[in-house]
Amino acid sequence: MTASPMAAHPTPERIFNTLNAYQNTAALKAAIELDIFTAIGKGAQETTAIAAKIGAAERGVRILCDNLTILGFLTKEKNLYALTPESALFLDRRSPANLTSILGFLAKEEFTGQFERLTEAVRKGGCVTQDGDNTKPKPEFWVAFARSMAPMTVPASKFIAELLPSGERNSWKVLDIAAGHGMYGIALAQANPQARIVALDWEPVLQVAQENARAAGVADRYQLRPGSAFEAEMGENYDIVLLTNILHHFDPATCEKLLRRVHTALRPGGRVVTLEFVPNEDRVSPPTAASFSLIMLASTDSGDAYTAAELSLMFQKTGFRNSTIHAMPGLPQHVMVSEKAT
Amino acid sequence: MTASPMAAHPTPERIFNTLNAYQNTAALKAAIELDIFTAIGKGAQETTAIAAKIGAAERGVRILCDNLTILGFLTKEKNLYALTPESALFLDRRSPANLTSILGFLAKEEFTGQFERLTEAVRKGGCVTQDGDNTKPKPEFWVAFARSMAPMTVPASKFIAELLPSGERNSWKVLDIAAGHGMYGIALAQANPQARIVALDWEPVLQVAQENARAAGVADRYQLRPGSAFEAEMGENYDIVLLTNILHHFDPATCEKLLRRVHTALRPGGRVVTLEFVPNEDRVSPPTAASFSLIMLASTDSGDAYTAAELSLMFQKTGFRNSTIHAMPGLPQHVMVSEKAT
């Protein structure tokens, strides 16, 4: 919600709405927890019917559904609520693309709690707890990430799989660094039946990736390498290395340290595929990618949302060439592909 | 922030941004606490200068200022930040209209904490703590309100004072019910030098109103009536009764009980002036007024954001006539004026 476009003079409406923006988070969280989207998807349209289906009070349901309509997650015609295409696809639990599990990470107190101390984080210039150094193991936190965030990756993992045509080489050897749920590597394994994936992450996190690989029917081509991206033996002669949502956790020097290790692990001509929130040079657009920097300020010691130029420079300094940046239609992240010189 | 307008297919961006919307609240809160707007207003334009002025880290300041730019509270040109007209007026502490004090209420844990239990509130249909009945005294909470929210009232109190031309009667006798900071009654006293104001509220709250009346130079025409709006002796023969931001706390039956008391206290032909968040009949527009219902769900047993028709009906049932509704340009609230039949 923004200030009234009609206002000729400055008004406090935007300030009021921003100070109350946490209430929007609470509304969507409550709706997912109460499974309101599934109830409406199953045919409940009026407050009474929805309230009966989810076992909640009519006053509560009416006010929540009105607020979900204001936020763009429902439509309302007379007194009948309906799902938007977005809610039907992503918030109805019966949908194969449902991503309601992301609450398990995005609403996790260890994550949201960092923002309660944001003033301190700005003063200090980084995370105010002991959790800001992501080169250190935090397996429990990343297991929650891996268990929760997999559905968010589907469109981007398809994009990456299509970006790397599977016909070009008989068999790929792929290293998925900080694999998490493993979905990006698994998508490559599905796109290329001869691809073999090596997933690197903390040991408890890799169990989640392995479960997902089994569910996707690619477990026989899925190998686990437990350990730190900065210390573990990575193996060699890879065709492709995946760096999805990892570089933003570190400062450029640490990123370059990792890229040198990646360079060593790749065969000549091999490629590294980086997925990141990449703001424009102004660092204030587009909004979702640019605002990701705040999450890095609150939760890491020195991470950032890097621009394409900054990423390119890191790759250039570590022996890569031909870095190309790819926007993903409708998605807030970008993919960068860089080659190891032959 | 909304989903990319270019997206041809549904994307999870709106869901992601809404689940992270509390971070916008944290960003603005941190900026106010660090007094970044005053520092920029005083001439600091670059990260380094701002960081030096507020005693914070450059990384923290750069990321926070970028996020404030994304949210519309700053502009950024090259690497120079500047205040928007809105921020200069409302967020620079040197501005007479600065309303940074509203954090003292809007960020108060007793208020924000209600939203941590919103799922329960939807199930129950109202506030899940013992604080949901606003006919009961909660003086400490309302003192925080009175001390914090006064600056928010300036444009609306001016609007009301102009809506009631002071020339029409030599001396007004005004009753300000649940006066809080007292700003609406005080504005009438300033507009009409012969107006006498009676402020009714819990005793500790009235001390704040009296301070404000003194500061405005109208203390000699400012009288206090401590007690409950539902039980205190109100006095009689009032020309005007102010009901600003009170009806939304109660169900219609309780509102009507209060309106009958107001009716008794007014002279024939006297008027009651109601200030409220008034959604359209669809209850989902305009956004700020309509979404106010969620605050009432979380924090009251049975309050609401009432439509103009619902408010009119309450007045009609309790002996009033000629209810007229007035939009305030650029403000999210409406004013209703209703007459006691002669």
Describe this structure in words.
- The structure is a homodimer of 342-residue chains.
- Chain A is α/β, with parallel strands linked by helices.
- In chain A, 43% of the residues lie in helices and 17% in strands.
- Chain A contains 16 helices and 9 strands.
Give a quick rundown of the structure:
The structure is a homodimer of 342-residue chains. The first copy, chain A, has 342 residues and is of the alpha/beta class.
Helix percent of chain A reads: 40-55%
What string gives the helices and strands of chain A in order?
HHHHHEEHHHHHHEHEHEEHEHHEE
**What is the overall shape of chain A?**
globular
Multimeric organization: homodimer
What is the strand arrangement across the widest sheet of chain A? Answer: 5-4-3-6-7-9-8
Q: What gyration radius of chain A follows from the Cα positions, in whole Å?
A: 22 Å
Number of strands of chain A: 9
Strand content of chain A: 15-25%
CA(first)-CA(last) distance of chain A: 52 Å
Question: Which chains have the largest interface?
Answer: A-B, 94 and 95 residues
Structural class from helices and strands of chain A? alpha/beta
Tally of alpha and pi helices of chain A: 16
Q: What's the topology here?
A:
Two copies of one chain form a homodimer.
Chain A: H1 13-19, H2 22-34, H3 36-41, H4 47-54, H5 58-70, E1 74-77, E2 80-83, H6 85-90, H7 103-106, H8 109-112, H9 118-124, H10 139-149, H11 154-163, E3 173-177, H12 183-191, E4 196-201, H13 203-215, E5 222-226, E6 238-244, H14 252-265, E7 266-276, H15 287-299, H16 308-317, E8 320-327, E9 334-340
Parallel strand pairs in A: 3-4, 3-6, 4-5, 6-7
Antiparallel strand pairs in A: 1-2, 7-9, 8-9
